[in-house]
Structure formats: C-alpha cells, structure tokens
Amino acid sequence: MEGLSYVSEVPFVVVDLVNLRSVDVDVDDGSAWVEAGATIGELQYRIAEKSRALGFPMATCHTVGVAGYFSGGGHGPVCRKYGLAADNIIDARLIDANGEILDRKSMGEDLFWAIRGGGGGSFGIVLDWKIKLVPVPSTVTVFTLTKTSEQNATKLIHQWQYVAPNLPQDLSILLTISGDGNGSIQATFIGLFLGRVDNLVSLMAERFPRLGLVKQDCTEMSWIQSVAYLAQLPQGPVEILLDRNASVKSYFKVKSDYVNQPIPEFVFKEMGRWFEDEEGRNATISFVPYGGRMDEIPESETPFPHRAGNLYIIRYVTAEVGEISDFQKYINWTRRLYRYMTPYVSKSPREAYINYRDLDIGVNDEDKTSYDQASTWGFKYFKNNFEKLVKVKSLVDPENFFKHEQSIPSI
C-alpha cells in the first residue's frame, strides 16, 4: 500500500518472486502448496480446476500477491466463517538471513508464528506456503444493493453495524460508502452467502428486513464465479482471474481503523460533505464485518490481534485515475478524514491493519531508538503481539538484514 518495494532513501535490493507462481493442489489431503509469486486469482482458479468443493479464504482483489496477503494475516469476505488466510497456513519454506531454506519443523514454531501475520519483509523470504483448503458449497448466492440518501442510506449503514457482525457465519455483507455527486452519500451492500437464494432471502427478512432484499436482487453461482464477482470483474469465463492486468491502475492512499462500538448515525450523514471535495470524488470508505470465527480465535494465536471485540474494519481510500500534478492534497484529504473519525474508532491503541500499510502512523525522531520508533506503529498493528515479534526478529535476524520503513526491529 505504501510502495515500500519501489523507493528507498538508502541503497536496497528487491527480490522479485513473480516467476514463483505454481500452485500444487492435493484434493485428497485438502491442502495446497502455493509459491509466493502467485496471485489470489491464480490460487483460487487452480483450486477450482481440481475441485468445486474446495476453496480458500481470500480477499476480493484478485491481483494481490499471496505472499504479502498471507504475511499480514489476510482477511476477506469469508473470514467470519473460516478465519484469516494466515489461520489456514500449515507449513512454509523460508530463506533466512543466513541463506538457509527452512520449513516449519526446522524454523521452529516461534518463527512460523511470526510469518503468519507479522508483516512481510522482516524475517526472511518465504518461497512457498502450504495451506489448508476449506469446504465450499457447490452453489453460493451473491447480491449487490446500492442505496442513496433518499433511500435512507445513513439509517441502513447505522443498522448494518449491529447486524453484520452478528449474522450466521455463512453470510457476510460488505459495505462501501461513496459520494452521490450531490453532497450526500450512497451505500453499496455486497453480500456473499454460502448457500441457496431462498435461504438467504428468508434469513435477510428475519435479520435485516430494512435493507429490503428480494430474490430478484440475488444471483446463484459457483464458488469460483463468486470470487470473480467480488473482485468486480466482468461476469463471464473465470479465466479472467489469471489476468494480472485486469484491474484499474490509479494513484491512491489508504488508511485503516477498527471499530469496537457502533458509530452514531450523524457521523455517516456528515460524510456527504467529504465526498463533495475534488479529492473525495473517487474516494471510498469500505467496511468488512468481523464476528463469527474471528471472535473465536485468541489474539495471540497469530501476530494478527484484531479478534473478539472488533465489529468491523474500515478502509479509507483516496484514489485518482490518470496523471495528476499534485497528489499530496489527496493524501491530506485522507488524513483529515482519519482525524475526523478519531472519537468513533478503537483507542489505546488506535488499531490498524498491517496489510493496509500506513507510514503516517510511524514516527521520525532521531532521539528515539529504532525500537521506540517502531513501537508507535507496532502496537497499532499488533497490540501486545509486537513484543513477541521483536523477540523472534532478534533471534532469527539479529543484524536486521531484512528491513524496510516499518519492519520489525532487532534489539
């Protein structure tokens, strides 16, 4: 998210893993080895080639590389059912700072713990991952509903906070807020149900009747088709998931927040003015609900600590397609919105998601040690797991060979 592989103030090396992209699926064992250069789309497609009954909990953007996604934890539409991607990793092969190739047994459980959510670029180079596949039904149901302010968008957003984290684990409703071009907001609800349409409509009538979902709003499809659907790809041959260029390139800035208590309705109503600004015309605020399986896994199980108590995560995105002369004002717009949201999100620490890397939450104080500087963002990303990550880093890479602006420090 911050382009840490592209620029640096000091000489640096990038190891390009793009050609390590094979996926070896073992249907009988319910597992797969996936090389670090594969994308989410490639992984899902290769699994579906072998079985319509197996899948993997992944994000919606199909061009994201699996290694970065796994290393930060990796949440997505079915994390309420199956947990994170990192919760379903059972082995890995890593090159450490001494140039040795280690698997789970030889690297030890502490290092294996650290690479499943501790962020990329700190502990070594993961060559490939062994993942536990999850069962998926032959038919799933999806829907997309957009509501305007005239259709009570703000009331629906407010109610979504109470409904979405407490739904049965088979149903996730993602939410995106954007401007309607007239100083108000519109809300887009995107649902994925691991079941048939009739059961979904009945469930929604019981749990979220105000949204007004009807059968005609829904589409039944296979699991792999839903992967393409959630990636907002054209409906057609799922081979498009193999296309690494099938997404719009833009300049963007991302920040994140976690929410522990429902946000008052007036906050969403006031968001309309933010989207009136030039910098807000292509901006979005996205919400992914937690709860379900995410509540059941202890904070210390992996470095990713954002478990029970979190209703959902917010992702703020400011974007602009095409050449622009001054993107700094777009970045500043996102920072102002982030400050505005301060009273309504998690505190002590104000939590953030490592896969939505944000250099704004670091510090640059020459009088502080590298550990003190790192602790500023470290506790936001990892909470109390940060201390263990530092201990693991200090043991496996004491010379701090693997480093970047927000890598885990050695002490």
From TrEMBL:
Coiled-coil stretches: none
PROSITE patterns: FAD_PCMH
Stretches assigned to the FAD-binding PCMH-type domain: 1-136
Keyword annotations of the record: FAD, Flavoprotein, Glycoprotein, Nucleotide-binding, Oxidoreductase, Signal
A GO molecular-function descriptor: FAD binding
Keyword Disulfide bond included in the entry's annotation: no
Glycoprotein among keywords: yes
Family, per entry: Belongs to the oxygen-dependent FAD-linked oxidoreductase family.
Protein's recorded name: FAD-binding Berberine family protein
Organism: Hibiscus syriacus
